[in-house]
Write a structure and sequence with these properties.
binds guanosine-5'-diphosphate; alpha/beta; metal-binding; six-stranded mixed β-sheet; single chain; binds magnesium ion; nucleotide-binding; Rossmann fold; 2 domains; metal ion binding; two-stranded antiparallel ribbon; transmembrane
């Protein structure tokens, strides 16, 4: 591959910008707001996504409408899971909607991604779910739905031949309900994704964790996508870089197109002082479709003005060693983006 001095400068500039952008995120926080009836699998799904028990599962029925804040930290990134037990549940002495609205407004000051969670094996939107959608809309305005996704759980309970239709129909019904408060333009754009926290695939035999991840990354607020990526990057299967390189310690990297060089360090895992192996659960492997969506969103987050194919390939080659040099979650994220941009 021909690789000029000016390509090298562009590549280094890009990697520097990327590194700075990621370093800027350290200390940033992001929040998930979980909405849906008790027992539908809100906690289980956020735990699957984050690869760690970030919200407690099961065992408690709300008796009042509450707001729970679960503060977490992974790879040096802080994030909060805001749960709304009772909001979509039917129970006696449900309490005053108006007080709850006020509470939500005063206690929640940032939401980067909202999940409306419902079971795929149910057929209709219940009265309590409708009430929950109404309250959320009144508390935060229609904008809350611009960074929202509909998550269908218990997908494994649906027969394979009914799966497609169920997903389509349930999505339509929930969007229809949200349309009442946010209008069609916003509601029709809310993506939906089906999951099953007890198995890796949905009834179409496809893995769902990568799809959930991609939807979250694409839908969440612009300031939160990179921190989210950093908090989960250790679980992402890295794409193979397209060009092999020989790494010479800074400041010179020589990209070459030779076959695999055994001394090339680019496929070795980065030593990661920021997180431990015990947090690993399922590895997240993106499909081509996922990568395209992640690529598109990432280019809106990081200035990537006219990066030609050569620079793209060079970024792919250099990102590995640069990432290794930087280390930790930031280094791993640089390595991941390198693979992404080099395609
Ligand atoms: N079969 C199946 N069970 C699930 C799924 N998600 C959660 N569960 C189970 O449903 C129960 C309630 O889950 P939890 O995450 O606590 O629900 P939450 O109240 O909405 O937070 C637990 O026993 C979970 O193991 C799913 O996708 N499929
Ligand atoms: Mg829960």
């Amino acid at each position: 591959m021909t690789y000029s001095k000016s390509d090298e400068k562009k590549t280094r500039d890009f990697l520097e910008r990327l590194t700075n952008r990621l370093q800027d995120q350290v200390g940033d926080e992001f929040t998930f707001l979980l909405v849906g009836r008790t027992g539908v699998g809100k906690s289980s799904t956020i735990n699957s996504l984050m690869g760690k028990e970030v919200a407690p599962v099961g065992d408690y029925e709300p008796t009042t409408m509450e707001i729970e804040f679960y503060d977490n930290e992974i790879n040096g990134v802080n994030f909060t899971v805001i749960d709304t037990p009772g909001l979509c549940d039917d129970f006696e002495e449900k309490g005053n909607d108006y007080d709850y609205l006020e509470k939500m407004r005063s206690e929640i000051d940032q939401v980067d991604c909202t999940w409306f969670v419902s079971r795929l094996d149910e057929t209709r939107v219940t009265r309590d779910e409708k009430e929950g959608i109404k309250l959320i809309s009144e508390a935060f305005g229609e904008e809350i739905w611009e960074k929202a996704i509909i998550v269908f759980t218990f997908a494994g309970n649906v027969a394979p031949e009914k799966y497609r239709t169920a997903l389509k129909e349930r999505t339509r019904l929930i969007r229809q309900e949200i349309t009442k408060y946010a209008g069609t333009a916003i509601a029709e754009n809310i993506p939906s994704v089906a999951v099953d926290n007890t198995q890796p695939t949905t009834p179409d035999k496809k893995k769902w964790l990568n799809k959930l991840y991609t939807q979250v990354y694409v839908s969440m607020s612009t300031q939160s996508s990179l921190p989210f990526l950093m908090s989960t990057v250790h679980r992402i299967k890295r794409p193979e870089p397209s060009t092999e390189i020989i790494y010479v310690p800074s400041p010179v990297y020589y990209p070459v197109t030779s076959s695999r060089n055994p001394s090339s360090p680019n496929s070795d895992p980065v030593p990661n002082p920021g997180y431990s192996q015990t947090q690993w659960k399922d590895e997240i492997e993106f499909t081509e479709e996922d990568r395209t969506a992640i690529d598109r969103k990432t280019r809106t987050l990081i200035e990537t003005t006219a990066m030609g194919a050569t620079v793209g390939a060079a970024v792919g080659s250099l990102a590995g060693p640069v990432g290794t040099a930087v280390g930790g979650a930031i280094g791993a994220a640089i390595g991941f983006f390198g693979g992404l941009f080099s395609r």
